[in-house]
Each structure stands twice: as structure tokens, then as C-alpha cells.
Design brief:
The protein is an alpha/beta fold. It contains seven helices and ten strands. Helices cover 32% and strands 17% of the residues. The strands form two sheets. Strands 1, 4, 5, 6, 7, 8, 9 and 10 form an eight-stranded parallel beta sheet that branches. The radius of gyration is 17 Å and the shape is globular.
């Protein structure tokens, strides 16, 4: 079983009772978690680097590392830790909001947090880490028309490729919400894989091609201290949640 870790912000959590403060992992916690991975012999990989291991074409002690939304603190706080350990990761950026903030959270009272600009996203890519797509506007795909969903999925890929000069082959469904039509749109757009908010570690080996576009992940949040982190990593702790009904994401600001 291979865990794909989900992070959002690597920063001091906002004061209680701020909504979704759990999605801010303090830097000291992140450093400790990455150190545990290294100590246990894990190699942290981007999603593209992880795919051969998921398919069973390569073997090794590996873990996927992903960051949703593309927060500036991923660059300033997480990147130095990853580089120091020789790890890679994928950040899922919202192509139409580069240099802006998490405006999709505004109505819910979530504090503002800066997103990476185009220049900062290029710096992330130049450091050898991967940029994936999180749509153009952090859209709720289940609320979009077919045409809107197609535009969010395809235009974001083109925009991010133009900004970074790199191929964008990985996608993440905002809020974890998707259906079979969205999965097909992601495939048709030329992505090679997509992650969800379904909770589980991933099995190694052959799968139906469509299943590479609904990959489960392991959430890491503010309250995930090192004993629980090791349980998530090394045991069926997350697997017991199983794969939730397709198209129904967990309540999150992913």
C-alpha cells in the first residue's frame, strides 16, 4: 500500500474558531513528519514520479506528497524542507487566481491566505517539483454545466503549462467533488492521473485505466501529531475509511 499525503497550508493556524484552521499544518509539524519519512527510508515523490510505483512497474519505499490550492507558504515553508531531504511533491494550483488568495473560502469566513504568483510557481517548478491543476477558479464541478467543467479542466492545464513551461499531467478535483463525466473530461484533456479526497492508501498493481483518475489520499491536518502520522503511514488506519461514494467529497476546503 502506498500513501499519498494531502497538505494544504504549511503555516501557523489562524486563531480559533476560524473555519478550516485544521488545514494549516505548523512548519515544525511538517518538518517532523518529513524527517520521520526520511528516517523510515521513504522517498517523497511527486505524483508523476509516483505513478510507476502505483502501477507496479517499480518497487520501493515511497510516498506521494501533494499540496492543494498552491499557497505561497508551500513555497516559502515546505520547499526548503523538501529540498533538504531530496524529496519531491506536487502542488495543485488554481490557474486563474495566481498571485491572489483563497477567495473561494471568503463566504465561509476563512481567513485570507496568499497563493503563489506565476513567478513563484515557476520557482517551484525550477526547483524540480511538480505543478498540477486544481481548475481555473477552484470550481465546484458538480455545480458546473458540462461546458463550464470542460473549460475549468482544459484551460487550467493550458494556462499552467504556459506559465511554467512544463507539461501539466496531474489534476486534483476541488472539494473532492466529481462524477464519471468529470473523470472522462480529465482524461480527454490529456492528464495522466487525478487525486480526490477519498481516504485510503493506494494499492499497488494493475487497475482499470479510469481508476488512475480517482486516486485516494491520506489527509494530514493541524492535529496530526507524529504517532497518528505514523499510524496513517504504516497501518490500515486510513484504509478503514474505504472509498466513499464517487462524486461525494469530504467536507473540506480542498
Amino acid at each position: 500500500m502506498i500513501p499519498i499525503l494531502t497538505y494544504h497550508q504549511i503555516a501557523t493556524p489562524p486563531p480559533s474558531p476560524s473555519p478550516y484552521r485544521s488545514l494549516s499544518v505548523p512548519l515544525a509539524h511538517f518538518e517532523s513528519q518529513m524527517a520521520w519519512l526520511h528516517r523510515l527510508g521513504y522517498q517523497g515523490l511527486s505524483m508523476t514520479e509516483l505513478m510507476p510505483y502505483l502501477r507496479g512497474e517499480r518497487s520501493g519505499r515511497v510516498v506521494g506528497i501533494t499540496f492543494d490550492d498552491g499557497y505561497q507558504n508551500n513555497l516559502t515553508h515546505a520547499l526548503p524542507v523538501l529540498r533538504r531531504l531530496g524529496f519531491s511533491a506536487t502542488v495543485y494550483a488554481v490557474s486563474g487566481l495566481l498571485g491572489a488568495s483563497n477567495v473561494w473560502d471568503r463566504a465561509g469566513g476563512v481567513p485570507r491566505s496568499a497563493l503563489m504568483s506565476g513567478q513563484e510557481l515557476r520557482a517551484w517548478a525550477r526547483a524540480g517539483l511538480e505543478v498540477g491543476s486544481h481548475t481555473c477558479s477552484h470550481a465546484r464541478l458538480l455545480s458546473c454545466t458540462d461546458a463550464q467543467a470542460r473549460a475549468e479542466i482544459t484551460h487550467s492545464k493550458a494556462e499552467l503549462e504556459e506559465i511554467t513551461g512544463e507539461a501539466v499531467t496531474q489534476f486534483c478535483y476541488p472539494y473532492g467533488e466529481f462524477n464519471a463525466a468529470h473523470r472522462t473530461l480529465v482524461q480527454e484533456a490529456g492528464y495522466l492521473g487525478a487525486t480526490t479526497t477519498l481516504r485510503s492508501r493506494e494499492k499497488v498493481g494493475s487497475r482499470e485505466p479510469a481508476q488512475w483518475f480517482e486516486l485516494a489520499r491520506v489527509p494530514v491536518v493541524r492535529s496530526t501529531h507524529w504517532p497518528q502520522f505514523l499510524l496513517k503511514l504504516l497501518t490500515p488506519y486510513e484504509d478503514r475509511h474505504g472509498r466513499r461514494a464517487q462524486g461525494v467529497g469530504q467536507a473540506s476546503a480542498a
